[in-house]
């Protein structure tokens, strides 16, 4: 099974996938890792691991549509079975979803449909829920919407900050993502 992983930031979830593949516990090939901006640690980690990488820099394109088309063309060229968004902070175009419907896997640090969007951890704390968590789902053209594959609950502790909670959620998120990818690879 071949995957392309899309990141925008540190790529700690991606690193867990790389480690699992290298350890032989995740039977898939990471065909490439890409980002929407230059200089991400996620792409740097991947290059250091000898993986193919690409950047479709949002700022290089005159229009959103041009960027959408470039991203789709770049990802499709790797012929992935699945595309995995892990900390990728762009909402892809409907044309991307059409091309990868049911094959675009996203991770989110909240229990969707609660608290979608870029600040799911902060929004859960602000609301005052006692339990939040993480979700792995097939993304559709919405913001963190689409069929849910798996979820893990994570309790919010009295002295949590957004950072401490997000780091604890990410531990669960990495395990969940690897579990889901294992199931997909063995299906
Ligand atoms: C993850 O919690 C992901 O779900 C969210 O942003 C975080 C990315 O973390 N969208 P990292 O880049 O994998 O460290």
Quick recap of the structure?
This protein is of the alpha/beta class and 187 residues long.
Outline the fold blueprint:
Blueprint: E1 2-7, H1 12-22, E2 29-35, H2 41-48, E3 53-55, H3 64-76, E4 82-85, H4 94-100, E5 104-108, H5 120-127, E6 131-138, E7 148-155, H6 162-186
Parallel strand pairs: 1-2, 1-4, 2-3, 4-5
Antiparallel strand pairs: 5-6, 6-7
Helix pairs in contact: 1-6
The structure holds 5-O-phosphono-beta-D-ribofuranosylamine (GRF).
Residues 7, 9-14, 42, 86-87, 107-109, 170, 173 line the site of 5-O-phosphono-beta-D-ribofuranosylamine.
What does this structure look like?
The protein has 187 residues and is of the alpha/beta class. It has one domain: Formyl transferase, N-terminal domain (Rossmann fold), CATH 3.40.50.170. The protein is built from 6 helices and 7 strands; from the N terminus they run E-H-E-H-E-H-E-H-E-H-E-E-H. The protein has a 7-stranded mixed sheet. Strand 1, helix 1 and strand 2 form a beta-alpha-beta unit. Helix 1 packs parallel to helix 6 (162-186). It binds 5-O-phosphono-beta-D-ribofuranosylamine (GRF). Residues 7, 9-14, 42, 86-87, 107-109, 170, 173 line the site of 5-O-phosphono-beta-D-ribofuranosylamine (GRF). Belongs to the GART family. It comes from Arthrobacter glacialis. This is Phosphoribosylglycinamide formyltransferase.
């Amino acid at each position: 099974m071949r995957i392309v992983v899309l990141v925008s930031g540190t790529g700690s979830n991606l690193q867990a996938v790389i480690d699992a593949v290298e350890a032989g516990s995740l039977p898939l090939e990471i065909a490439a890792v890409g980002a929407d901006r230059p200089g991400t640690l996620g792409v740097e980690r991947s290059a250091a691991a000898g993986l193919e990488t690409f950047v479709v820099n949002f700022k290089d394109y005159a229009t959103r549509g041009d960027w959408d088309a470039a991203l789709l063309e770049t990802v499709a060229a790797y012929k992935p079975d699945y595309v995995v968004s892990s900390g990728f902070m762009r909402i892809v175009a409907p044309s991307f979803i059409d091309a990868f419907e049911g094959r675009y896997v996203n991770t989110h640090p909240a229990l969707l449909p609660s608290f979608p969007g870029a600040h799911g951890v902060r929004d859960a704390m602000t609301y005052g829920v006692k339990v939040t968590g993480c979700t792995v789902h097939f993304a559709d053209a919405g913001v963190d919407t689409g069929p849910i594959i798996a979820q893990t609950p994570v309790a919010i502790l009295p002295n949590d900050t957004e950072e401490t909670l997000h780091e604890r959620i990410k531990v669960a998120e990495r395990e969940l993502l690897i579990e889901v990818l294992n199931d997909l690879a063995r299906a």
